[in-house]
């Protein structure tokens, strides 16, 4: 008789969100309370987890993800790095609210120093709802984190039976189960029959390949996002600068075009030393350097394919290393 294969050790770090949410009734799918169920009860609700991994749980935070902050990210990333450095941890799953899940995934993709799997997971329906998606999503996330296939793939997101890349995935719908998508580039694979199936991979550098080290950091530089629209008003940008912003993401219209009325404020911000990154509110496509604005002349940076909220994360980390815009532009073409 051959011994049963040894199960991987997976730690679930719980941070709250709808996956840990409860509603007034089984038909409550909006207006429920996020972040009420503790990690041990999340694990207990899915006894099948024991078949795919030796699971342990830690409650890191208990928040709705709209309240996720830079400080939460530093705490979480440091914990992930400590756990993955241990021989008795093979992978980490992070339960998370869906609203900012894509941001945490990209932050970790840039600062986790391990090739071991890190998988973020959430739910669109609270745990008390009919056909809640949390339990199957959690099961899929744990088996993915326990799988050799997920090693070295960067931080992953497991939602709706699909495997998504932390860099590229985004929430595209306020409420449906298929809210997590990677438009145009596509998701990386499926989870089916308790197995991950990978078909593609991002070529951008991640985890052990990055130059970022948050080990000694207690905070991150202030970077804010200004949103572009017709009749755009520069007041928000000026206010962010007055509040001490070290970087500004300009989530411009189209290919990041700059409204004439806003250009003086952008130039003034740059003159004060803030790094300006041109991104787009459109959600897809390359933000072309020297396209809709002369970035060389303005000394601005182009966001490439990062959406504004992900560009904010890369700029914060970049500013922990340098304020040289050429160097920062290189980073935007690398990660
Ligand atoms: N579906 C969710 O998880 C939404 C919730 N507001 C959160 O991000 O925590």
From TrEMBL:
UniProt record similarity statement: Belongs to the asparaginase 1 family.
InterPro entries: AsnASE_II, Asp/glu_Ase-like_sf, Asparaginase/glutaminase-like, Asparaginase/glutaminase_AS1, Asparaginase/glutaminase_AS2, Asparaginase_C, L-asparaginase_C, L-asparaginase_N
Keyword Chaperone in annotation: no
The L-asparaginase N-terminal domain, residue ranges: 9-202
Keywords: Hydrolase, Signal
Enzyme class: hydrolase
EC number(s) stated in the UniProt entry for this protein: 3.5.1.1
UniProt organism field: Massilia antarctica
Protein name listed in UniProt: Type II asparaginase
SMART domains linked: Asparaginase (SM00870)
GO MF term set: asparaginase activity
Keyword Ion transport: no
